[in-house]
Amino acid sequence: MSMTFLFGYMAFMVVVLISVNLIARRSRPSRLAGATDGSLEVALEESATLRPPVQERTPLATADISIPKVLTVLLIGMFIAILNQTLINVALPVLINDFNVSTSTAQWLTTGFMLVNGILIPISAFLMRSYTFRQLFLVSMTLFFFGSVICSMAMNFPVMMLGRVVQAAGAGILMPLGSNVFMTLFPPHKRGAAMGMLGIAMILAPAVGPTVTGYVIQNYDWHVLFYGMSFFGLVTLFLGLAWFKLVQPLSKPTFDALGVIFSTIGFGSLLYGFSEAGNDGWDSPVVISTIVIGILGIAAFALRELSMDDPMLNIRVLKVPEFSFTLFINVIVTMALFGGMLLLPIYLQSIRGFSPVDSGLLLLPGSLIMGITGPIAGRLFDRFGIRPLAIFGLTLMTYGTWELTQLDMDTSYHSIMGIYMLRSFGMAFIMMPIMTAGMNALPMKMIPHGNATQNTLRQVAGSIGTAILVTVMTRQTTAHLADDANQFTTLDPALSQHIGDLGQQLGSSQAASLSWFSQLTKQATITGITDAFWVATVLSALALVLSFFLHGKKEPNLD
Questions:
Q1: CA distances from 222 to 234, 342, 522 (A)
Q2: Are 290 and 272 in contact (CB under 8 A)?
Q3: Average pLDDT score over residue span 230-256
Q4: pLDDT tier at 558 (50, 70, 90 boundaries)?
Q5: So where does this one cross the membrane (predicted)?
Q6: Residue 557: which region, alpha, beta or left (left: phi > 0; alpha: psi -120 to 50)?
Q7: pLDDT band per the 50, 70, 90 thresholds, residue 59
Q8: Which contiguous run of DSSP H or E holds residue 493?
Q9: Would 66-251 and 319-559 be classified into the same CATH topology?
Q10: Cα–Cα distance, 344 to 337 (Å, whole number)
Q11: Would you state the CATH architecture of domain 66-251?
């Protein structure tokens, strides 16, 4: 069933993309007079009702638009789009009960969202050249709004899944759009601080999401979550209509339907395979087959793009050494980061028994630190370059991740909070600066392609990292449980006597055995989690070593 659903789902996304492309092209505005190919100079989209039709377009440097308003509405849109991704994780157990579906089926609410993003991001460079920033923003928020409305009215799983697909289509357009707008609006020497502001939305939303969702789930119906998403989506759409007036010169790239098909099959299958590896294991036929199909699809996509004079995604950006090297470090950091973000909530809620609200509140201070520090780290990047920031940030991140390998049943709430805050502080100095450093190495006309390549590989890296760490956790948990049970039953007669005494106190040896096995399982799970954090520590340490080979401050590419 899942394989049929996967390929049907991919075909649906291709049809939607081609349809939107054909419809939107009919009303696409002409290129700005005097604009040259590859130029990304931003201009104000003027309305005939506001200005005399004979007046020329105003350059951005002297335009009477409010750039803060543009950035505000963009950040709000990105914030709620990212926040929406975190809602389902906490609400999933409730949805499983309400819809009466299995966990593997319900997981499609998150897997499907990820797949749509993985399909749309590789073609975002084509979208940026085909449609204006304003068009893409309004379309993305419209899709997000209607998707949220569908989710809020869902009374069964298929309707809920449809709403998530529509939501994801909007978010998949919005995320690369945000990076492109920031890279376009700001000159290279100010991009570090600007991207630091963008990081606020990307960091705070995942921090706030679990806490808000946990509170709503405990006190209200889960539909309230999507009522809220619908309301904020509609408000942001109206703000966008009023404030988001940016357009850019457009080229007319040829729509490469075959490239879209290869990209959809390749990245969609690969992301699905890695996401299922954490659940079904690496030896699952479905996992192996989808990963192989994904690799073949990506290879076909790469060959297709390299053979074209005007590719949809110009992967020749990887020939720029500094871009490729920073991207490699970024991928390693993302693998360690995404997997770690999954493991810690499992430890807090499943092992230590913290509620979703308490778990979210524990993680909130660290994320707030990242949000506050992000713009500061950006300014330091503009002044000193990437190498000192990367070394400092990765040193703290590696140490903080190592500290998480020491977790046990007695680790205090405040100790965990302090470790996470330290780790988050270090991450603030590497996440957005390393992305900005790579983008600054590219000529301006290649920024959309570099942004699409970077976001796509980060998406894949997050899936791979999650799959690897979850696999390590589950297999090590099973191994430790078997070893501990064998030792306790054969090598420790004193413990066996203790269990017997405990059974007499409880009035039932069966109850004592269950209690003993429960504690044994928890201890084995903690050991499995800490083993997985050891892998994350090694990944972080590898990125730290590589950071010493980064270039110091250098002039960005202004071509």
A1: 19, 22, 29
A2: yes
A3: 84
A4: low
A5: 6-24, 70-96, 108-127, 136-159, 165-186, 198-218, 224-243, 255-274, 286-303, 323-348, 360-377, 384-402, 422-442, 532-550
A6: beta
A7: very low
A8: helix 493-506
A9: yes
A10: 11
A11: Up-down Bundle (1.20)
Question: For 390-411, what is each residue's pLDDT tens digit?
Answer: 999 999 999 999 999 898 888 8
Number of other residues whose CB lies within 10 A of the CB of residue 307:
8
How would you classify the pairing of strands 43-44 and 246-247? antiparallel
Domain ranges of the chain: 66-251, 254-311, 319-559
Would you say residue 557 has pLDDT above 60?
no
* CATH of region 319-559, choose from 3.30.830.10, 3.40.309.10, 1.20.1250.20, 3.40.50.720: 1.20.1250.20
Strand partners, 59: 43
Cα end-to-end distance, the chain, whole Å:
50
Q: Running DSSP on this structure, what letter comes out for residue 53?
A: T
Residue 151, by phi and psi: left (phi above 0), alpha (psi -120 to 50) or beta? alpha
Torsion of CA 158, 160, 165, 167, to 10 degrees: 160
Cβ atoms 91, 213 nearer than 8 A:
yes
3-class secondary-structure state, position 492? coil
Q: Is the pTM of this model over 0.85?
A: no
* Per-residue pLDDT, 522: 77
Q: At what angle do helices 67-99 and 223-243 cross, to 10 degrees?
A: 160
200-240 pLDDT per residue, tens:
777 777 767 777 877 887 788 888 889 999 999 999 999 99
